[in-house]
Amino acid sequence: MKMNVHTVGGFIKGYLGEYWIDDEYSRNGIQIEASFGVNRVAFAVDACLETIEKAGEAGAQMLVVHHGICWGDGFARIDGFNAQRIGALFKQGITLFGCHLPLDAHPVFGNNAVIAKRLGLRVNDWFYESHGLKLAAECRFDAPIYFEELTARVTETVSPNTVAFNNSKGKIETIGILAGSGENAVHECAARGIDCLLTGEFRHAYFHYARELGVSVLSCGHYDSENTGIQELMKMVGNCCRLETIFIEAPTSL
Questions:
Q1: pLDDT tens-digit profile of 209-222?
Q2: Taking the CB of residue 126, how many other CB atoms lie within 10 A of it?
Q3: CA atoms of 146 and 138, how far apart (whole Å)
Q4: CA-to-CA distance for 68 and 33, rounded, in angstroms?
Q5: What are the structural domain ranges in the chain?
């Protein structure tokens, strides 16, 4: 028996609770409505042509992603790659649902909470506020850890593509976790006395900031750091809504 796409979307919003926001940047929620009934939901990090086509091949009527295709003021024009993506969604009858910042901030199955769990850490506090949500997780190790040991753990549990910058003078006692493009948090990490920042992308200019502030950095790649929470959300939707689910990999190595 199929469930209405708005019912599924409403369930996701309700489960996210206070962490759901209708901010004008992320455009969370249904972005393209191309179906009404759903019995199979696909999940992916990005709403790109590859994931849309694979969702159609898998027989999904709904695609839930972390990065949607509608940002800010929406579409000024529907051409180029947006036209291809929207056309593919309607052709295959797939409704697109985006869930951006709420899936960074949620303390149970958000990207940063899941990474902390994978590393065997408990979140002590949250920082780095954006659109009213605190996104970054602050964790303390039970015992100080060598940076090389931490790097190996992150490489094994989060991303094999992890790039490490050791700027600490001693062992690592605290770590801040901010998936995606989280390099901006390096300043707040320094202010809070956090030894290491784990993030996705870490751009050139921030290398010197981190070195001069004495904050070590583990850059796991945007994709690898954010394929975490979306998979936890998939499990929740599948179990609670009793729908078939499938996760679609489309890694970028970035």
A1: 999 999 999 999 99
A2: 18
A3: 18
A4: 13
A5: 3-100+228-247, 111-223
